[in-house]
Amino acid sequence: QVQLVESGGGLVQAGGSLRLSCVASGRTFSNYAMGWFRQAPGKERKFVAAVTWSDGTTWYGDSVKGRFTISRDKVKNTVYLQMNSLTPEDTAAYYCAASSSTVNLDWRSWGQGTQVTVSS
């Protein structure tokens, strides 16, 4: 049973930065991809970024390219999302997710979410 616990959300002014963390447990993740998604009130959950656990390959949603960086620490079993140049449009609940395949992404495990609020 994969467990994901996010932290690091909060209130920040526009132009500021935050780093989210997601601690993963419950199994080994060698063949997994780990991702971040976000959901604003009244809107669909959207993909933000993902990383393959084994070799660290990353990919990003268009709205965060060049501002957000995803990384993973294999020793700490933690995935990070460094968010820079934040805007009010980045305000959302951010969720960590795990996919058991890096080819056919299934995002079958989810954390409880952490709120990010960006003030103008």
Structure report:
A hairpin with a 5-residue loop joins strand 5 and strand 6 (58-60). The N and C termini lie far apart (40 Å). This protein is mainly β and 120 residues long. Strands 2, 4, 5, 6, 9, 10 and 11 form a 7-stranded mixed β-sheet that branches. The protein has a 4-stranded antiparallel β-sheet with strand order 1-3-8-7, with no helix packed on it. It has strands spanning 3-7, 10-13, 18-25, 33-39, 46-52, 58-60, 68-73, 78-83, 92-99, 109-110, 114-119.
Sequence-ordered SSE layout with sheet pairings:
Elements: E1 3-7, E2 10-13, E3 18-25, E4 33-39, E5 46-52, E6 58-60, E7 68-73, E8 78-83, E9 92-99, E10 109-110, E11 114-119
Parallel strand pairs: 2-11
Antiparallel strand pairs: 1-3, 3-8, 4-5, 4-9, 5-6, 7-8, 9-10, 9-11
SSE topology string = EEEEEEEEEEE
Largest sheet: 7 strands, mixed
Structural class: mainly beta
List how many beta strands DSSP finds: 11
The percentage of residues in β strands lies in over 45%
- Looking at the structure, what is the overall shape? globular
Can you give the mean pLDDT?
96
Helix content: under 10%
Report the total helices.
Answer: 0
Low-pLDDT windows of residues = none
Termini, distance in Å? 40 Å
Radius of gyration: 13 Å
Summarize the structure.
The chain has 120 residues and is mainly beta. The protein is built from no helices and eleven strands.
